[in-house]
Amino acid sequence: MISVVLALLAAAGNATASVLQRRAARSVPKDKAFRPALVLALVRDPVWLGGIAALVGGFLFQAAALSVGALALVQPVLVIELPFTMVLLSWMFGVKLDRRSWLAVGTVTVGVSVFLVSAAPGPGRQTPTSAEWVMATVVTIGTVIGLVMVARLFTGAGRAAALGVATGVGFAFTATFIKESTSVFQRDPAALPASWQLYAMVVAGLCSLFLLQNALHSGPLVAAQPALTVSDPVAGILYGTTMFGEHVRTGHWILLEATGITLIIYGSFRLAKSLPSGLGHKTPRRGHESRLGRTRGERGR
After folding, report:
1. What spatial distance separates the first Cα and last Cα of the chain, rounded to whole Å?
2. Which of 60, 74, 103, 182 is deepest in the core (most CB within 10 A)?
3. pLDDT higher than threshold 90 for residue 49
4. Is the CB of residue 278 less than 8 Å from the CB of residue 95?
5. Would the pLDDT of 234 be above 60?
6. So where are the chain's domains?
7. To 10 degrees, what angle do helices 81-92 and 2-25 make?
8. For the whole model, what pTM was predicted?
9. Is the pLDDT of residue 280 over 60?
10. Helical H segments across the chain, by residue range
11. How far apart are the C-alpha atoms of 52 and 87, rounded to whole Å?
12. Cα–Cα distance measured from residue 76 to residue 27, given in angstroms and rounded to the nearest whole number
Protein backbone atom coordinates (compact mmCIF):
# COMPACT_ATOMS: atom_id res chain seq x y z
CA MET A 1 0.00 0.00 0.00
CA ILE A 2 1.55 3.26 -1.18
CA SER A 3 0.31 5.30 1.81
CA VAL A 4 2.09 2.92 4.22
CA VAL A 5 5.37 3.14 2.29
CA LEU A 6 5.17 6.94 2.23
CA ALA A 7 4.38 6.98 5.96
CA LEU A 8 7.43 4.80 6.66
CA LEU A 9 9.62 7.25 4.72
CA ALA A 10 8.07 10.08 6.73
CA ALA A 11 8.89 8.23 9.95
CA ALA A 12 12.52 7.83 8.84
CA GLY A 13 12.75 11.55 8.10
CA ASN A 14 11.21 12.47 11.45
CA ALA A 15 13.55 10.13 13.31
CA THR A 16 16.60 11.69 11.65
CA ALA A 17 15.25 15.14 12.52
CA SER A 18 14.71 14.21 16.18
CA VAL A 19 18.25 12.91 16.64
CA LEU A 20 19.91 15.87 14.93
CA GLN A 21 17.73 18.46 16.68
CA ARG A 22 18.25 16.76 20.04
CA ARG A 23 22.01 16.86 19.56
CA ALA A 24 21.85 20.57 18.78
CA ALA A 25 19.33 21.46 21.51
CA ARG A 26 21.50 20.04 24.30
CA SER A 27 24.20 22.62 23.53
CA VAL A 28 21.87 25.56 24.30
CA PRO A 29 21.83 26.97 27.88
CA LYS A 30 18.75 25.95 29.88
CA ASP A 31 17.78 29.56 30.63
CA LYS A 32 16.70 29.95 26.99
CA ALA A 33 13.83 27.45 27.36
CA PHE A 34 10.37 28.70 26.27
CA ARG A 35 11.98 31.83 24.80
CA PRO A 36 12.56 32.93 21.19
CA ALA A 37 16.25 32.96 22.12
CA LEU A 38 16.18 29.16 22.01
CA VAL A 39 15.28 29.15 18.31
CA LEU A 40 17.69 32.03 17.56
CA ALA A 41 20.50 29.99 19.10
CA LEU A 42 19.55 26.84 17.22
CA VAL A 43 19.35 28.42 13.75
CA ARG A 44 23.09 29.10 13.97
CA ASP A 45 23.82 25.39 14.37
CA PRO A 46 24.37 23.42 11.11
CA VAL A 47 23.36 20.19 12.88
CA TRP A 48 19.99 21.69 13.81
CA LEU A 49 19.51 22.98 10.26
CA GLY A 50 20.19 19.46 9.01
CA GLY A 51 17.46 18.27 11.37
CA ILE A 52 15.07 20.84 9.92
CA ALA A 53 15.87 19.62 6.41
CA ALA A 54 15.08 16.05 7.50
CA LEU A 55 11.87 17.30 9.14
CA VAL A 56 10.80 19.00 5.90
CA GLY A 57 11.46 15.75 4.03
CA GLY A 58 9.36 13.85 6.56
CA PHE A 59 6.59 16.43 6.19
CA LEU A 60 6.52 16.05 2.41
CA PHE A 61 6.30 12.26 2.65
CA GLN A 62 3.57 12.57 5.30
CA ALA A 63 1.58 14.96 3.10
CA ALA A 64 1.88 12.54 0.20
CA ALA A 65 0.76 9.66 2.43
CA LEU A 66 -2.26 11.62 3.71
CA SER A 67 -3.26 12.55 0.17
CA VAL A 68 -3.88 8.86 -0.62
CA GLY A 69 -4.53 7.34 2.82
CA ALA A 70 -6.62 7.86 5.94
CA LEU A 71 -5.39 9.89 8.89
CA ALA A 72 -6.20 6.89 11.12
CA LEU A 73 -3.86 4.78 8.95
CA VAL A 74 -0.94 7.13 8.36
CA GLN A 75 -0.47 8.42 11.92
CA PRO A 76 -0.15 4.95 13.54
CA VAL A 77 2.48 3.94 10.99
CA LEU A 78 4.54 6.93 12.15
CA VAL A 79 5.08 5.04 15.45
CA ILE A 80 7.90 3.28 13.59
CA GLU A 81 9.72 6.59 14.04
CA LEU A 82 10.68 5.48 17.56
CA PRO A 83 12.67 2.36 16.55
CA PHE A 84 14.25 4.37 13.74
CA THR A 85 15.24 7.04 16.26
CA MET A 86 16.82 4.59 18.67
CA VAL A 87 18.77 2.83 15.93
CA LEU A 88 20.10 6.20 14.75
CA LEU A 89 21.01 7.14 18.32
CA SER A 90 22.96 3.92 18.75
CA TRP A 91 24.79 4.54 15.47
CA MET A 92 25.57 8.22 16.07
CA PHE A 93 26.69 7.80 19.68
CA GLY A 94 28.55 4.51 19.31
CA VAL A 95 26.13 2.53 21.48
CA LYS A 96 25.35 -1.05 20.54
CA LEU A 97 21.79 -2.34 20.61
CA ASP A 98 21.61 -5.51 22.68
CA ARG A 99 19.07 -8.32 22.44
CA ARG A 100 16.60 -6.62 24.79
CA SER A 101 16.70 -3.47 22.70
CA TRP A 102 16.05 -5.37 19.47
CA LEU A 103 13.23 -7.23 21.22
CA ALA A 104 11.68 -3.85 22.14
CA VAL A 105 12.04 -2.69 18.52
CA GLY A 106 10.32 -5.88 17.39
CA THR A 107 7.56 -5.40 19.96
CA VAL A 108 6.75 -1.92 18.65
CA THR A 109 6.77 -3.17 15.06
CA VAL A 110 4.50 -6.11 15.86
CA GLY A 111 2.20 -3.79 17.83
CA VAL A 112 1.81 -1.47 14.84
CA SER A 113 1.15 -4.43 12.53
CA VAL A 114 -1.44 -5.98 14.87
CA PHE A 115 -3.25 -2.67 15.27
CA LEU A 116 -3.35 -1.87 11.55
CA VAL A 117 -4.50 -5.35 10.54
CA SER A 118 -7.20 -5.50 13.21
CA ALA A 119 -8.40 -1.89 12.91
CA ALA A 120 -8.22 -1.80 9.08
CA PRO A 121 -8.50 2.04 9.03
CA GLY A 122 -10.53 3.24 6.06
CA PRO A 123 -10.76 6.66 4.40
CA GLY A 124 -13.51 9.03 5.47
CA ARG A 125 -16.21 10.47 3.25
CA GLN A 126 -16.87 13.71 5.01
CA THR A 127 -15.27 17.15 5.20
CA PRO A 128 -15.16 18.73 8.67
CA THR A 129 -17.69 21.50 9.18
CA SER A 130 -16.75 24.94 10.49
CA ALA A 131 -18.19 24.02 13.89
CA GLU A 132 -16.07 20.86 14.01
CA TRP A 133 -12.92 22.82 13.15
CA VAL A 134 -13.66 25.34 15.91
CA MET A 135 -14.37 22.61 18.45
CA ALA A 136 -11.23 20.67 17.54
CA THR A 137 -9.13 23.83 17.73
CA VAL A 138 -10.46 24.80 21.16
CA VAL A 139 -9.99 21.31 22.57
CA THR A 140 -6.49 20.98 21.09
CA ILE A 141 -5.28 24.37 22.32
CA GLY A 142 -6.72 23.69 25.77
CA THR A 143 -5.04 20.28 25.92
CA VAL A 144 -1.67 21.61 24.80
CA ILE A 145 -1.75 24.54 27.23
CA GLY A 146 -2.69 22.17 30.05
CA LEU A 147 0.22 19.85 29.21
CA VAL A 148 2.65 22.78 29.06
CA MET A 149 1.47 23.96 32.49
CA VAL A 150 1.97 20.46 33.85
CA ALA A 151 5.45 20.33 32.27
CA ARG A 152 6.46 23.52 34.07
CA LEU A 153 5.90 21.69 37.38
CA PHE A 154 8.63 19.18 36.57
CA THR A 155 12.24 19.09 35.46
CA GLY A 156 14.25 16.62 33.42
CA ALA A 157 12.48 13.51 32.16
CA GLY A 158 9.07 14.49 33.55
CA ARG A 159 9.07 17.81 31.72
CA ALA A 160 10.37 16.24 28.52
CA ALA A 161 7.63 13.58 28.61
CA ALA A 162 4.81 16.09 29.19
CA LEU A 163 6.09 18.33 26.41
CA GLY A 164 6.50 15.25 24.21
CA VAL A 165 2.80 14.46 24.60
CA ALA A 166 1.90 18.09 23.84
CA THR A 167 4.11 17.95 20.74
CA GLY A 168 2.48 14.72 19.58
CA VAL A 169 -0.99 16.24 19.91
CA GLY A 170 0.21 19.35 18.06
CA PHE A 171 1.65 17.38 15.16
CA ALA A 172 -1.47 15.20 14.93
CA PHE A 173 -3.60 18.35 14.71
CA THR A 174 -1.23 19.73 12.09
CA ALA A 175 -1.84 16.52 10.13
CA THR A 176 -5.56 17.35 9.94
CA PHE A 177 -4.70 20.60 8.14
CA ILE A 178 -2.23 18.76 5.91
CA LYS A 179 -4.92 16.29 4.90
CA GLU A 180 -7.48 18.99 4.23
CA SER A 181 -4.93 21.06 2.27
CA THR A 182 -4.09 18.08 0.06
CA SER A 183 -7.81 17.61 -0.59
CA VAL A 184 -8.15 21.25 -1.62
CA PHE A 185 -5.12 20.88 -3.91
CA GLN A 186 -6.54 17.75 -5.52
CA ARG A 187 -9.87 19.47 -6.22
CA ASP A 188 -8.42 22.76 -7.46
CA PRO A 189 -4.67 23.50 -7.21
CA ALA A 190 -5.28 27.21 -7.83
CA ALA A 191 -7.52 27.39 -4.75
CA LEU A 192 -4.86 26.21 -2.31
CA PRO A 193 -3.07 29.58 -1.80
CA ALA A 194 -6.41 31.16 -0.83
CA SER A 195 -7.46 28.36 1.53
CA TRP A 196 -7.33 29.05 5.27
CA GLN A 197 -6.29 25.43 5.94
CA LEU A 198 -2.91 26.05 4.34
CA TYR A 199 -2.07 28.91 6.71
CA ALA A 200 -3.55 27.07 9.69
CA MET A 201 -1.22 24.18 8.82
CA VAL A 202 1.78 26.52 8.83
CA VAL A 203 0.84 28.07 12.20
CA ALA A 204 0.07 24.71 13.82
CA GLY A 205 3.26 23.21 12.42
CA LEU A 206 5.46 26.06 13.67
CA CYS A 207 3.86 25.93 17.13
CA SER A 208 4.40 22.17 17.25
CA LEU A 209 8.00 22.63 16.12
CA PHE A 210 8.54 25.13 18.94
CA LEU A 211 7.10 22.62 21.41
CA LEU A 212 9.38 19.94 19.98
CA GLN A 213 12.49 22.07 20.51
CA ASN A 214 11.50 22.66 24.13
CA ALA A 215 10.77 18.95 24.65
CA LEU A 216 14.19 18.03 23.27
CA HIS A 217 15.85 20.80 25.27
CA SER A 218 14.12 20.00 28.58
CA GLY A 219 15.27 16.45 29.17
CA PRO A 220 16.56 13.20 27.67
CA LEU A 221 15.35 12.13 24.26
CA VAL A 222 14.43 8.74 25.68
CA ALA A 223 11.74 10.50 27.75
CA ALA A 224 10.47 12.88 25.07
CA GLN A 225 10.48 10.56 22.06
CA PRO A 226 8.23 7.71 23.33
CA ALA A 227 5.70 10.24 24.66
CA LEU A 228 5.64 12.06 21.33
CA THR A 229 5.58 8.91 19.23
CA VAL A 230 2.68 7.30 21.10
CA SER A 231 0.52 10.43 21.54
CA ASP A 232 0.70 11.43 17.86
CA PRO A 233 -1.08 8.35 16.42
CA VAL A 234 -3.60 8.16 19.26
CA ALA A 235 -4.60 11.78 18.66
CA GLY A 236 -4.50 11.20 14.90
CA ILE A 237 -7.00 8.36 15.14
CA LEU A 238 -9.32 10.51 17.26
CA TYR A 239 -9.12 13.38 14.76
CA GLY A 240 -9.61 11.05 11.82
CA THR A 241 -12.68 9.29 13.18
CA THR A 242 -14.42 12.32 14.69
CA MET A 243 -13.64 14.95 12.04
CA PHE A 244 -13.25 13.07 8.76
CA GLY A 245 -15.58 10.16 9.37
CA GLU A 246 -12.79 7.61 8.97
CA HIS A 247 -13.68 4.20 10.27
CA VAL A 248 -11.92 1.49 12.23
CA ARG A 249 -13.27 -1.94 13.04
CA THR A 250 -15.27 -2.34 16.23
CA GLY A 251 -16.86 -5.33 17.95
CA HIS A 252 -14.52 -8.22 18.72
CA TRP A 253 -11.72 -6.48 16.77
CA ILE A 254 -11.34 -4.02 19.65
CA LEU A 255 -9.54 -6.67 21.70
CA LEU A 256 -6.87 -7.10 19.02
CA GLU A 257 -6.62 -3.33 18.54
CA ALA A 258 -6.09 -2.89 22.29
CA THR A 259 -3.43 -5.61 22.16
CA GLY A 260 -1.62 -3.77 19.38
CA ILE A 261 -1.72 -0.47 21.26
CA THR A 262 -0.50 -2.20 24.43
CA LEU A 263 2.43 -3.71 22.54
CA ILE A 264 3.28 -0.30 21.07
CA ILE A 265 3.28 1.38 24.49
CA TYR A 266 5.15 -1.46 26.19
CA GLY A 267 7.76 -1.72 23.46
CA SER A 268 8.22 2.06 23.34
CA PHE A 269 9.00 2.40 27.01
CA ARG A 270 11.11 -0.75 27.14
CA LEU A 271 13.14 0.62 24.26
CA ALA A 272 13.49 3.96 26.00
CA LYS A 273 14.60 2.28 29.24
CA SER A 274 17.18 0.23 27.37
CA LEU A 275 19.11 3.41 26.55
CA PRO A 276 21.30 5.16 29.13
CA SER A 277 19.47 8.25 30.42
CA GLY A 278 22.35 10.50 29.46
CA LEU A 279 22.46 9.39 25.86
CA GLY A 280 22.32 12.36 23.59
CA HIS A 281 23.61 14.89 26.12
CA LYS A 282 27.05 14.82 24.59
CA THR A 283 28.99 12.88 22.04
CA PRO A 284 30.97 9.98 23.54
CA ARG A 285 34.71 10.06 23.11
CA ARG A 286 36.04 8.03 20.24
CA GLY A 287 36.50 4.40 21.14
CA HIS A 288 34.22 4.56 24.17
CA GLU A 289 31.25 2.35 23.43
CA SER A 290 28.67 0.95 25.82
CA ARG A 291 26.16 -1.82 25.38
CA LEU A 292 22.49 -0.95 25.81
CA GLY A 293 20.81 -2.47 28.80
CA ARG A 294 24.05 -3.12 30.70
CA THR A 295 24.41 -1.46 34.07
CA ARG A 296 27.67 -0.15 35.46
CA GLY A 297 27.85 -3.12 37.78
CA GLU A 298 27.35 -5.60 34.96
CA ARG A 299 30.16 -4.01 32.98
CA GLY A 300 32.45 -4.43 35.94
CA ARG A 301 31.89 -8.19 36.23
Report:
1. 49
2. 74
3. no
4. no
5. yes
6. 2-281
7. 40
8. 0.74
9. no
10. 2-25, 36-42, 46-68, 71-77, 81-92, 99-119, 130-151, 157-187, 196-218, 221-243, 253-273, 296-299
11. 19
12. 32
